[in-house]
Recover the amino acids of this structure.
């Protein structure tokens, strides 16, 4: 059908920040290509933004675009078919998304915090209203990981996912490794380059990664969103010597989001955890540097697959937003029962498999302890580990520097249950020959 015969799908945009402007630019630049793919034109016709000047500058040469400062006017605009929510945060974004759904509009969102915390409620509302909520841009920026998990790998029983899904933290760890900088110095550099916010807690404490992991876990395993059960540990306490020692042992330290099917005490469970992790340096994911993202997905039929690309930025994120717009345009007229379900599994087929407590998770460990340089110290430590059935895989004992009476011992353990390791660390720290706290970092082979 000729372009003129097909009425454009009308899009209302909430937020004209970095991603909003990127979405506007890419949609305009590739309009012809996108129309050929979607089967009809997609036009932004109504924009709500606090920065009207920016929206006016962008849309000066476009006809028929309404500009407002109140998002409610967009959500209630009868002519708008799809609302794109790029405000971020929980409120007022949640109110506008639910109102758009109640008004019978499809929603495209890049808001991982909102979906991780309230996705179950939002998807249920959309299901009831017969509309779609698309969220490719909420996880790993421009990498089409949601589509891969929901559609591309649908034949597979997904076994586990491990992802570098926060570019700020990955940039900081890359800098610490490359330059020997402390965490504080690398963070300062990241802020100067615009990779880190003035308040970087959301990124460096692992919260942003946990939001994204929660969404991927729900899709991979067909369970509800359970952000409140995710274990998060950030990178701010990492010392440069641990990055150096890990390197000597053939590992890199990455902030990983890990979710996998698992068993604890004979019961099925799901691991949902974000923390610094030692990964063998020969793994592809260990070599992802700077602000890039990468997600490794292991399916039973396909084996391990790796998805790599920019996790943020105006146009990479816009790429995902517009892909969602095209999907919604194609499926707009489809019977709701025949669309791809929000969480990949039919809504009445979600499972209630519980998320495991971190104490029940089994993995390997890197342990570093400062000890007095005298006979019998190592024997005491290995006895404590052996009593808890924790076996040692590798060990380095550093030569004390001249005149020093203390030295570092680094141990790598075989797989063990976390609560046993925590108990052993408490006993080791109580030894009179051990100084200060034992540093513990989890390890994953990812093979």
């Amino acid at each position: 059908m000729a372009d003129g015969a097909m009425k454009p799908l009308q899009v209302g945009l909430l937020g004209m920040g970095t991603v909003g402007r990127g979405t506007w630019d890419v949609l305009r630049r590739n309009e012809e290509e996108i129309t050929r793919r979607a089967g009809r034109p997609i036009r932004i016709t109504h924009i709500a933004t606090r920065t009207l000047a920016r929206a006016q500058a962008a849309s000066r040469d476009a006809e028929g675009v309404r500009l407002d400062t109140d998002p409610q006017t967009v959500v209630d605009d009868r002519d708008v078919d799809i609302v794109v929510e790029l405000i971020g945060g929980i409120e007022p974004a949640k109110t506008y998304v639910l109102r758009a759904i109640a008004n019978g509009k499809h929603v495209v969102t890049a808001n991982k915090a909102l979906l991780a915390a309230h996705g179950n409620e939002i998807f249920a509302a959309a299901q009831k209203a017969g509309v779609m909520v698309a969220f490719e841009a909420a996880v790993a920026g421009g990498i089409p990981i949601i589509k891969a998990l929901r559609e591309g790998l649908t034949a597979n029983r997904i076994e586990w996912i491990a992802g570098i899904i926060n570019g700020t933290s990955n940039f900081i760890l890359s800098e610490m490794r490359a330059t020997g900088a402390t965490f504080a110095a690398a963070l300062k550099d990241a802020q100067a380059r615009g990779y880190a916010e003035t308040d970087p807690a959301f990124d460096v404490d692992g919260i942003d990664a946990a939001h994204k992991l929660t969404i991927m876990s729900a899709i991979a395993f067909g369970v509800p969103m359970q952000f409140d059960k995710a274990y998060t540990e950030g990178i701010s306490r990492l010392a440069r010597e641990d990055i150096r020692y890990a390197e000597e042992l053939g590992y890199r330290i990455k902030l990983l989001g890990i979710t996998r099917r698992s068993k604890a005490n004979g019961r099925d469970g799901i691991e949902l955890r974000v923390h610094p992790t030692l990964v063998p340096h020969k793994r592809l994911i260990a070599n992802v540097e700077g602000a890039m993202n990468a997600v490794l997905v292991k399916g039973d039929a396909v084996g391990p697959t790796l998805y790599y690309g920019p996790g943020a930025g105006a146009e990479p994120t816009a790429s995902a937003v517009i892909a969602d717009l095209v999907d919604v345009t194609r499926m707009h007229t489809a019977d709701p029962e025949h669309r791809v379900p929000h969480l990949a599994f039919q809504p009445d087929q979600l499972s209630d498999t519980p998320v495991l407590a971190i104490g029940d998770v089994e993995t390997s460990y890197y342990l570093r302890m400062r000890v007095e340089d005298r006979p019998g110290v190592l024997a005491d430590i290995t006895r404590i580990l052996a009593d808890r059935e924790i076996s040692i895989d590798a060990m380095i004992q550093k030569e004390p520097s001249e005149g020093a009476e203390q030295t570092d011992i680094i141990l790598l353990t075989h797989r063990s249950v976390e609560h046993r390791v925590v108990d052993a660390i408490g006993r080791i720290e109580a030894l009179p020959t051990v100084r200060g706290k034992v540093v513990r970092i989890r390890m994953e082979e990812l093979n």
